[in-house]
Amino acid sequence: MTKSEKIKARSATILKYATLISMSLIVIVPMIPIFLGSFKTNNEFYETSVWALPRNFLNFENYRIAFTDGNMLRGFLNTFLIMVVAITISVFIGAMTAYVLDRFRFKGRNLVNYLYLFAALIPTITLNIAIFSLMAWIGRNLGLQLINTRLSAIILFAGTDIITVYIFMQFLKHIPIALDESAIIDGASYYRVFFRIILPLMKPAVTTVIILKFVAIYNDFYIPMLYMPAEDLAVISTALDNFRGPFGSQWEVICAGQMITILPILIVFIALQKYIYKGLLIGAVKE
């Protein structure tokens, strides 16, 4: 390697790490005042700088108030219930859709692929009025109460998106089609092939989809706010938003509520990030 090449490689490395450090600081720095403020008393919060250390890091009173009086426990329970049902449905629908699109050749196959891609390009905010009206219409015609129930959020979150289908389709390319053909020759139906052979082999992809869906549902605020405005149906995001009323001037309690909201998703992401990256990179390199 020549001297100029070494300089270019070193410059690229410096630029790479400078970018990574800068992006990390953009995410981490705003969280520091929130973390420090969650341990301060009300007087301490207003009398000291937001960057000042709290007098007592063992002051968990704000966390107790946020968790009990702020109904955070109910928010976690509602979020968990919606997650379990919606993610289960989404995984099965997404895996089956990917299996059909990858293994079968039929008229309109490419059209379905394009429709998924087209739907991903449409800003969701432009469809909210139509989706809300459609949900209300379906509820009226089926005699179901969809609005202001958990069922509405479950239906919307259970929908399969292009990312889910893409992850499964890319993983299916690594599963030899000879497995399907051998099982069918032995008398297995397509349903049996999928549930007994294909789906168990797609565990890495399923894990990735579950994590991505978990993060998306946990962070979503708009759907719960619009379709489940009742206080007893609050999920973790809307439960935190409800702090604006009773805790409007108690910023230390609001900071504690934010930390309670942040910590679970932060722990999940740090612990499982390798599965996310692995799943997103499936099929990226042609073997």
Give a description of the structure:
With 287 residues, the chain is mainly α. The chain has a domain at 69-244: MetI-like (MetI-like fold, Orthogonal Bundle), CATH 1.10.3720. Helices cover 72% and strands 0% of the residues. It has 15 helices and no strands. The chain has helices at 3-28, 31-37, 42-47, 61-68, 72-103, 109-121, 128-142, 150-158, 162-172, 177-185, 190-201, 203-219, 222-227, 236-241, 251-281. Helix 5 crosses helix 9 (162-172). The chain is globular. The chain starts with a helix and ends in a 6-residue tail after the last helix. Residues 283-287 have low confidence and may be disordered.
User: What is the mean predicted local confidence, pLDDT?
Assistant: 84
The CATH homologous superfamily of the domain at 69-244 corresponds to: MetI-like
What is the CATH fold-level name of the domain at 69-244?
A: MetI-like fold
Q: What is the helix fraction of residues, given as a range?
A: over 70%
In one word, what is the shape?
A: globular
In angstroms, what is the radius of gyration? 24 Å
Which CATH architecture of the domain at 69-244 would you pick? Orthogonal Bundle
The helix-and-strand class reads mainly alpha
Low-confidence stretches: 283-287
Number of helices: 15
Characterize the largest beta sheet: strand count, sense, and whether it forms a barrel: none
**Beta-strand percentage?**
under 5%
The string of secondary-structure elements, in order, is HHHHHHHHHHHHHHH
CATH class group of the domain at 69-244: Mainly Alpha
